[in-house]
Amino acid sequence: MYVLPVIDAGAGPPWSNDGADTVEIFMPELRGYDRSRLFVVRVHGDSMQGYADDGTLVICYRDGLPERGKVVAVWLAGDGVVIKRYLGVENGLLLLGNDNRAYRAAFEAPEGSTVIGVAIGRFLRG
Predict the structure, then answer these.
(1) Most buried of 33, 61, 70, 71, CB within 10 angstroms?
(2) What's the rounded Cα separation, in Å, for the pair 35 and 105?
(3) Dist. CA 43–CA 11, nearest whole Å
(4) Angle, CA of 30, 6 and 96, to the nearest 5°
(5) What radius of gyration, in Å, describes the C-alpha atoms of the chain?
(6) What is the pLDDT of residues 63-96, one digit of tens each?
(7) Angle in degrees, CA 118, 114, 29, rounded to 5
């Protein structure tokens, strides 16, 4: 059983909280990961619909390597955390994408933004 901290994040506008919330999960596929480097992102919004709907819990690993096409948790400089698709770096800025076609396919994150974790799993909390 894993007890992991939960961060609220936008799939749309950024969200943030004090990290006081936790979730208990049992997922055998987490074996081998350093527990202290895992966290959960609770998604708010629909820009990542298809991968993560509103309310989806995304398990992220702080030491994961962002690779083109992977889903990542990103701290948008001074704005909070979002769940987006990593598209690379362009002009020194993170290039991120949305899965929901109702939103821009790609955009540059503000200067100072950083990937804080790579998604390694997801689930809906019932």
Answers:
(1) 71
(2) 33
(3) 6
(4) 85
(5) 14
(6) 989 999 999 999 998 788 999 999 999 999 999 9
(7) 10
One-letter identity of residue 4: L
- DSSP for 99-113, please give it: SSTTS-SEEEPPTT-
Residue 115 token pair: 């990937």
Backbone angles phi, psi at 28, to 5 degrees: -55, -30
Task: Using the CB atoms, write b or e for 80-95: b if 16+ within 10 Å.
Answer: bbbbbbbbeeeeeebb
| CA–CA dist 106, 51 (Å, integer) | 16
Instruction: Report how far residue 60's alpha carbon sits from residue 23's, in angstroms, rounded to the nearest whole number.
Output: 13
Tens digits of per-residue pLDDT, 11-69? 555 554 555 688 888 888 888 899 889 999 999 999 999 899 999 999 999 998 999 99
| CB of 59 closer than 8 Å to CB of 121 | yes
Tokens 């200067």 correspond to what residue?
111
Residue 1, SS3? coil
DSSP structure class, residue 30: G
